[in-house]
Design goal:
Strand content: 5-15%
Number of helices: 19
Mean pLDDT: 93
Helix content: 40-55%
Distance between the termini: 41 Å
Structural class: alpha/beta
Radius of gyration: 22 Å
Shape: globular
Number of strands: 14
Strand order of the largest sheet: 4-9-8-7-10-11-14
Length: 498
């Protein structure tokens, strides 16, 4: 079977995802941590051993008051772009050359538009447990989340600002491109309810587009979507079956998507909400990153938006460390009795402290081994792009999203069980509707306050990532998340089956 589109490089006759991941991580570390780079290159069991190397990249990034993170990000992205390939009409080329190669990228894309007939929401409300929280009710919920350690206080402050400025929900004058229009964590539904102009991109699958078009038609917003040339562009959903002809494949039709987005009137916010299983996640994330670079090259009016996964490694503020330390020192009565025994029988592996007391910053390692190195790389390269773009003066919205019961999570039995038992350790797992609306509000805040920024974001990248994080408690729980994961799985087995 021929390999097409964005593909892994062929090494010794094989396209190894482990070889690619090992090489990119080593290259990312090489300048700031040569010893760490050498260790990554020599890792013989990448699928199980990747955790320590992804942690090391964050540790190395804290050097030089956090400035080393910029070097790690630039080196990692350069390595990925030079190593990943794009199969074109004239053979395979490096990812960065996908747009300049004579690709013969197929039928060009045209635009269909769905204009909703619903009433625009003029204030922020948050769906939660079958209700919609608004005004003081939402403010009280933000206070509860802060008190429980489910999010950083800065995240609550940002949402409160959106509450105080309902006019911010009107994003007139810009188009928000939602790559992964059908994603559960994406902002498409919330943005359309606020009357935004959204550009949706997702795979050409009628089941996805039937759902997305129905949402748009009932909303107060406008949805632009790609259709293959000759598929009646510009018509409304009631006069053509848009779902059967809509969509674009980022992995296999990258140049066509770039040309289509380039031709749209701007300004554009390019939002990355794509996800795929396994190795395909790296392929599509690489394609999106190449698309981001190309659009930034072609246009001067592009902002970038991302959601960072909470199951990664982050440097966290001293305040989060102190919250966690207090929680460790004041366990529940049951935990106070059981913790010594559990630590003894596990050889100290269970219920380890989340941080050494007084750490500033602390290092939160919430990587989940079961998610695998491809997921970790796909999500890390988004953080790298956010870091580099912000330093280069691009408007960037990157916010850490909470653990959420999405379909991709609950279909993994171990993760579903861990999520069901997580509340025993101070971790709150959010429902998709709550998460995606909350993160859409943070996106609105970032976009509406970007004009007040004085030049490029020169904060240490770890500080920028921590600002506004909604981590569900992973940063503030008493215990190192992986040291509690096994217990959470056991405690959640019954609930997950239910």
């Amino acid at each position: 079977m021929a390999h097409t589109g964005v593909v892994f490089p062929e090494v010794d006759g094989k396209r190894s995802t482990s070889a690619l991941g090992r090489a990119v991580v080593a290259d990312a570390l090489r300048e700031v941590d040569p010893v760490g780079a050498h260790a990554a290159e020599r890792e013989t069991n990448w699928r199980q051993g990747y955790l320590v190397h992804f942690r090391r990249m964050v540790e190395a990034g804290l050097l030089r008051d956090g400035e080393a993170a910029v070097d790690v990000a630039r080196s990692g992205l350069a390595s990925l772009h030079s190593r990943m390939r794009c199969a074109t009409a004239r053979g395979e080329v490096p990812l960065g050359e996908a747009f300049s190669a004579a690709t013969g990228s197929g039928v060009p894309l045209e635009t269909a538009t769905v204009r909703g007939s619903g009433e625009r929401a003029t204030s922020l409300t948050l769906p939660m447990h079958g209700e919609r929280l608004a005004g003081d009710g939402l403010r009280r919920q933000l206070d509860r989340w802060v008190a429980a350690g489910s999010l950083e206080p800065s995240a609550a402050d940002k949402v409160r600002e959106v509450l105080e400025h309902p006019e911010w929900l009107d994003l007139s004058g810009r188009k928000v491109v939602v790559l992964g229009a059908g994603a559960e964590m994406g902002p498409l539904r919330a943005l359309l309810s606020w009357g935004a102009e959204v550009v949706g991109v997702d795979l050409p699958r009628p089941d996805i587009w039937k759902r997305v078009v129905d949402v748009a038609a009932g909303s107060a917003g406008t949805l632009h979507l790609p259709v293959a040339g000759g598929s009646s562009p510009g018509v409304a959903p009631e006069t053509a079956d848009l779902a059967s002809g809509a969509g674009a494949d980022l992995v296999h039709g990258l140049p066509a998507v770039a040309d289509w987005l380039t031709a749209l009137e701007g300004p554009l916010v390019l939002g990355n909400y794509v996800y795929a299983d396994g190795a395909t996640n790296v392929r599509v994330s690489s394609a999106v990153d190449a698309l981001s670079v190309e659009l930034l090259r072609r246009r001067s009016d592009v902002a970038l938006a991302f959601l960072a996964t909470p199951t990664d490694v982050f440097a966290v503020p001293r305040d989060a460390v102190e919250f966690s330390t207090r929680a460790y020192r004041s366990p529940s009565a049951v935990t106070r009795v059981l913790r010594p025994a559990l630590r003894t029988v596990s050889g100290g592996r269970l219920l380890q402290r989340n941080y050494a007391p007084g750490s500033d910053p602390g290092l939160n390692d919430s990587l989940v081994a079961q998610q695998g190195p491809n997921y970790a790389l796909a999500k890390r390269l988004q953080r790298w792009r956010a870091t580099v773009a912000a330093r280069d003066g691009v408007t960037v919205s990157l916010n850490v999203a909470p653990p959420t019961r999405t379909r991709s999570v609950v279909k993994n039995r171990a993760l579903a069980s861990a999520y069901a038992g997580a509340h025993r350790f101070g971790i709150e797992v959010f429902e998709p509707a709550t998460s995606n609306t909350l993160m859409a509000a943070l996106l609105v805040h970032d976009l509406q306050t970007a004009d007040t920024a004085d030049g490029p974001d020169t904060r240490a990248p770890w500080l920028a990532e921590a600002d506004g994080a909604v981590h569900g408690g992973l940063w503030r729980t008493a215990y190192d998340p992986r040291s509690a994961l096994g217990l959470a799985v056991v405690l959640g087995l019954g609930s997950a089956r239910g």
